[in-house]
Amino acid sequence: MRLTHEQQAEIDSQRQAAAPTRRATVPALEDMLYGALPVLDHGFVRVIDYMGDDAAVVQAARVSYGRGTRRVSEDAGLIRYLMRHRHSTPFEMCEIKYHVKLPIFVARQWIRHRMANVNEYSARYSILDREFYLPAPEHLAAQSSSNRQGRGAVLEGEEAAAVLDMLRHDATLTYDHYAHMLNEGADGEPADPGRRGLARELARMNLTLNTYTQWYWKADLHNLLGFLSLRADSHAQFEIRAYADAMLDTVRAWVPQTFQAFLDYRMGAATLSAQMLAVVRRLLAGDPVDQPGSGLSKREWAELMDTLGRA
Amino acid sequence: MRLTHEQQAEIDSQRQAAAPTRRATVPALEDMLYGALPVLDHGFVRVIDYMGDDAAVVQAARVSYGRGTRRVSEDAGLIRYLMRHRHSTPFEMCEIKYHVKLPIFVARQWIRHRMANVNEYSARYSILDREFYLPAPEHLAAQSSSNRQGRGAVLEGEEAAAVLDMLRHDATLTYDHYAHMLNEGADGEPADPGRRGLARELARMNLTLNTYTQWYWKADLHNLLGFLSLRADSHAQFEIRAYADAMLDTVRAWVPQTFQAFLDYRMGAATLSAQMLAVVRRLLAGDPVDQPGSGLSKREWAELMDTLGRA
Amino acid sequence: MRLTHEQQAEIDSQRQAAAPTRRATVPALEDMLYGALPVLDHGFVRVIDYMGDDAAVVQAARVSYGRGTRRVSEDAGLIRYLMRHRHSTPFEMCEIKYHVKLPIFVARQWIRHRMANVNEYSARYSILDREFYLPAPEHLAAQSSSNRQGRGAVLEGEEAAAVLDMLRHDATLTYDHYAHMLNEGADGEPADPGRRGLARELARMNLTLNTYTQWYWKADLHNLLGFLSLRADSHAQFEIRAYADAMLDTVRAWVPQTFQAFLDYRMGAATLSAQMLAVVRRLLAGDPVDQPGSGLSKREWAELMDTLGRA
Amino acid sequence: MRLTHEQQAEIDSQRQAAAPTRRATVPALEDMLYGALPVLDHGFVRVIDYMGDDAAVVQAARVSYGRGTRRVSEDAGLIRYLMRHRHSTPFEMCEIKYHVKLPIFVARQWIRHRMANVNEYSARYSILDREFYLPAPEHLAAQSSSNRQGRGAVLEGEEAAAVLDMLRHDATLTYDHYAHMLNEGADGEPADPGRRGLARELARMNLTLNTYTQWYWKADLHNLLGFLSLRADSHAQFEIRAYADAMLDTVRAWVPQTFQAFLDYRMGAATLSAQMLAVVRRLLAGDPVDQPGSGLSKREWAELMDTLGRA
Question: What is the pTM of this model?
Answer without folding.
Answer: 0.97
